[in-house]
Amino acid sequence: MTRALIVIDVQNDFCPGGALAVPGGDDIVAGINALMADYDAVVLTQDWHPTGHSSFASSHNGKAPYEMIDMPYGPQVLWPDHCVQGTEGAAFHADLNTGRADMIVRKGYRPAIDSYSAFFENDHETPTGLEGYLRTRGITDLTMVGLATDFCVNFSAVDAAKLGFNVTVRTDLCRAIDLDGSLASAQSGMTGAGVTLA
Ligand code: VGL
Ligand code: ZN
Fold first, then answer.
1. Residues 150, 178: contact at Cβ < 8 Å?
2. Which of 21, 66, 75, 113 sits in a 20 to 30 Å window from 60, CA-based?
3. Residue 174's pLDDT band (boundaries 50, 70, 90)?
4. Contact 20, 55 (CB under 8 A)
C-alpha cells in the first residue's frame, strides 16, 4: 500500500482575511504540516484562476457572489474574485510546509470552466493529470485535507473514490463554506461514494 496526502487549496484567499474566506481556514495548517511525515507522497492543489474567470460573479452582468448560473457543463455557483494567478491571495498560507510537497497541481486556469476537483474540471471529463501522476507512482490510498470541505475537498474525494482509490477525508483538518446546506449534502455524497470520513 502506497499512501499520499492530498492537501486541497490551503491558500490565502480561503483563509480569514482572504477574498473567499472559509471560517477557521487557517486553524488546520499546523495539523496538516504535522501529518506530512506519515505519507509516501504529499501533493498540494492550488486554485489558480485567470482574471475575469467565468466562476467570478464580477464576470457576469447583474450577478452577485453566491448566486447560481447555468454553464454549458451545468449549474455553477458564482464566487467573489479569488485565487487570481500570481496574486498574494492565490499563494499558499505562509505557514504551510510547501517544501515537503512532491507535486503541486494547479486547477481552474481555463477561463470558461471551473475546477473544484483535483482530478477533473467541473465538466467531470477534462482531466488535471493527477490521476496519472498517482497511478504511475503506484499510489493506492489517499488522505485528503484542506479547503473547502463542501467544494474542492468533496469533489476531489468523490472523484478519487470513483477512480478506485481508497479515500479518507480527515474532516478535523478541513473547514467548510457551508452554503445552503452544502456541507450536509457533501458529507452524504462522500459517504455514498465510498469515502471514509475520519
Ligand atoms: C473552492 C470555491 C471556488 C474550494 C475553490 O477550494 O473549495 N471553492 N473555488
Ligand atoms: Zn476557485
1. yes
2. 21
3. very high
4. no
